[in-house]
Amino acid sequence: MYDQTARTTASRNRSRMAYERATAHAILDEAYHCALGFTVDGEPRVLPTLHVRIDDTVYVHGSTGSRPLLAARGDAGLPVCLTVTQLDGLVLARSQFHHSANFRSVIAYGVARLVTSEEEKLAVCTALVEKVGRGRAAQTRPPSRKELAETTFLALPLREVSVKARAGGVSEDEEDLDLPYWAGVVPLRLVPGLPEPDLGVTVPLPHYLRPPRSPWVTPEPMGGDHVILEPLDMAHVDELFAATRDPEVWTHLSVRQPAHRDEMAEIVADALHAHHAGERVPWVQRDAATGEVIGTTSYYEVDEGRRAVAIGHTFLNRRHWRTGVNTEAKLLLLTRAFEELGAVRVVWHTDIRNDRSQKAIERLGARREGVLRMHRLRPDGTWRDTVQYAMTVDEWPAAQNRLREKLRAPAAVG
Question: Which residues form a coiled coil (predicted)?
Answer without folding.
Answer: none
